Amino acid sequence: MDSAGNLYGETSGSYGGGNTGVVFKLSPSGGGWTEQVIYSFENLTTYVQNTAVTMDAHGNIFGLGYSTVFELSPNGKGGWTPSVIHTFIGAPKDGETPQGALILDQAGNLYGVTSLGGAKNSGTVYKLSLVTKGKNKGTWKETILHSFSGGKAGSTPFSALVFDSAGNLYGTTFNGGKYGNGTIFELAAQVGKSAFKEKLLWGFNGRDGEEPVGSLILDNVGNLYGTTLQGGLESAGTVFEITP
Question: What is the DSSP string of 169-217?
């Protein structure tokens, strides 16, 4: 949502049909909403992923393709200028198949997850930072903050991350953990270091849910809330809370 109350989102395209998805805007109008397609993607380089978009303080929109991160910047004429700011190359040095919405920190850095790639091809957490000096000024630099190792340590993150006030990151993995049903993890910021230290907060056992999906919600006292796709008493999914 922008400061005027307009909503932004994206649709994913369909393979083989030439339709690679759009980014749209919904504006309040007469008690309802008016839709405007603000950009239509026409090539597989920026094939739109099925997830939310993110807007920074300057009105730039960020989203995911199936192998890319893209930016739409207002061109001052009512239109938008597209650019691919990162293309994932996969294991072992980069992620593959980005998932979940991107999140922004106060400095404008972007954070996200990939379900594959990384050192063990079990997914990554990454950071994208805008280069402001030197010959690469205006480009974006990627830093891999964590590579999942699979097994009990978790694998295949699908959902957006969430920050706490201290700069620690929280998220879920769809698979792995003690029981193989997915995990909740924390990446603790290390003073003076670019890397984060992983701490497993929970491993789903099936009775309390399995295959967590959707972004976590963090309240002001540190409790985390979320959902699982399956598991629970009726094997149809759960809503959970995890407390410090």
Answer: EEEEESBBSTTSB-EEEEEEEPTT-SSEEEEEEEE--BTTBEEEEEEEE
pLDDT of residue 44: 44
Question: What are the pLDDT digits (tens) for 53-108?
Answer: 999 999 999 999 888 999 999 999 988 999 999 999 999 999 999 999 999 999 99
Residue of 178 and 47 predicted with greater confidence:
178
Distance of alpha carbon 128 from alpha carbon 110, whole angstroms: 5
Number of domains in the chain: 2
pTM, full prediction: 0.93
Tell me, yes or no, whether 165 and 151 share the same domain: yes
Round to whole Å and give the CA distance between 238 and 236: 7
Q: Of 55, 87, 119, which residue is a domain's last?
A: 87
Report CA torsion sign: 213, 216, 217, 222: positive
Place of tokens 């930016």: 71
Cis peptide before 92 (omega within 30 of 0): yes
- Phi-psi sector, 240: left (phi>0), alpha (psi -120 to 50), beta: beta
Q: Residue 19 class from Cβ within 10 Å (0-12 exposed, 13-18 middle, 19+ buried)?
A: middle
Q: Which structural domain, as residue segments, surrounds residue 199?
A: 90-206
> Is residue 172 predicted with pLDDT exceeding 80?
yes
Asked whether residue 45 carries a pLDDT value surpassing 60, the answer given is no
Q: Give yes or no: residues 47 and 35 share one domain.
A: yes
d(CA 234, CA 104) in angstroms, rounded, equals 37
